[in-house]
Amino acid sequence: MSPPKHKDIATAIGLIGMLSATALVVFGDTHDLDSTWISPIGVIFLAGPSAWVAGLIFGGLFGSPGPWGWAALALGAVLSTFLGAAIAGTFVVPLLGTMIAPFELFE
């Protein structure tokens, strides 16, 4: 099997970002969005491109063989998650959202 292409990885990460945002809107608590300009549905549409850009930046960490591949996969997953949240947070609340959004993932 040939290794996945960089854009294919970014697209997969973008789709996972949109699915995660959909789960947040459907099952999660979105009362923090009441004080911002974005609606819960807007979060879904903003999550896709944000996760795609993060996938383009850190997509090279996915698809390596061997034990290093698993470590790179875990590192790439964490970094792309944080960067995708930071990008989306920047659009929702500039500057403050960039810093707070990645840490909201753990709340």
Secondary-structure blueprint of this entry?
Elements: H1 6-27, H2 40-58, H3 66-92, H4 96-104
Helix pairs in contact: 1-2, 2-3, 3-4
The residue-averaged pLDDT reads 83
Main sheet overview? none
User: Radius of gyration, Cα only, in angstroms?
Assistant: 14 Å
Task: Domain count, please report it.
Answer: 1
**Structural category:** mainly alpha
Report the helical percentage.
Answer: over 70%
Query: Low-confidence runs (pLDDT<50, min 5 residues)?
Result: none
Number of strands: 0
Order of helices and strands: HHHH
- Beta strand %: under 5%
Number of helices: 4
The best one-word shape is elongated
N-to-C CA distance: 39 Å
Outline of the structure:
The protein is mainly alpha-helical and 107 residues long. It is 72% helix and 0% strand.
Can you walk me through this structure?
This protein has helices at 6-27, 40-58, 66-92, 96-104. The model has no long low-confidence stretch (mean pLDDT 83). The chain is mostly helical. The longest helix has 27 residues, at 66-92. The chain is elongated and about 45 Å long. It has one domain (9-104). Helix 2 (40-58) crosses helix 3 (66-92) and helix 3 crosses helix 4.
